[in-house]
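Quick question, first post here. What does this chain look like in 3D?
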Amino acid sequence: MPLLKNVPDIRTKPMREIIYEHLRKAILRGELKTDSTFTDAEIAQDFGVSRTPVREAVQKLEADGFIERISMKGNRVRGISPYELAHCLAVRKAIETLAVRYTALRITAEELEQLRDLLEEADRVFAKYSGEELLERFFPVVKSFNHVVFEACRSKILTTLIWTQREVFDRYRVMRITLPNRPHKSLSRRKELYMAFMNRDHEKACAIWTEHLNESFAIWREKSGLGKDLEDFMFF
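> Answer (accepted):
Ran it through. Tokens below.
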């Protein structure tokens, strides 16, 4: 039985890169769970290739901190420590606040209209639903809103960093911890951010998103049970 699902057979990239990206996403999605193990031979069999590109892909995964080599067992999927995840959140704060500054200056009328439509959709969700159903319907609206906001910064470097970091947060369900504790605040903050974009006020946009992420970190630290581990962590 294959170890991985939906192994791609496209040869548009070097095989080592295809294998690396598929394994990375499998780890981030939780398909390959923390502390699970796999061998180069299993991956080579799944992809129908020799072990050489697998070994190269696995070496890159190890260098990037996703796995570690275990003698006689193959490769173990690494978890992430509370401090490492807290630093990921700090990196997120740095790059996302920079992105919203640029967005305030570069967002188009069409993108502003998209944000307005999403905020109106969110209002309809809040008017009609409550509890878990409200959250399940609000999650995709938030994700769509964020996507428009960050893509509007017009920086491929920034958006690549942002979506890479957010993959880590999806793996550890950071949003699923923070959003249920303040859905109304989450919506009101995005309305404030929209107005800052309308006014081309990059300082205000940065201040709004900084406050939003500071609150997100505080909620995550408390609700994740990591308050003791991170009580001296400086969230710059």
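The chain has a mean pLDDT of 91.
The radius of gyration is 20 Å.
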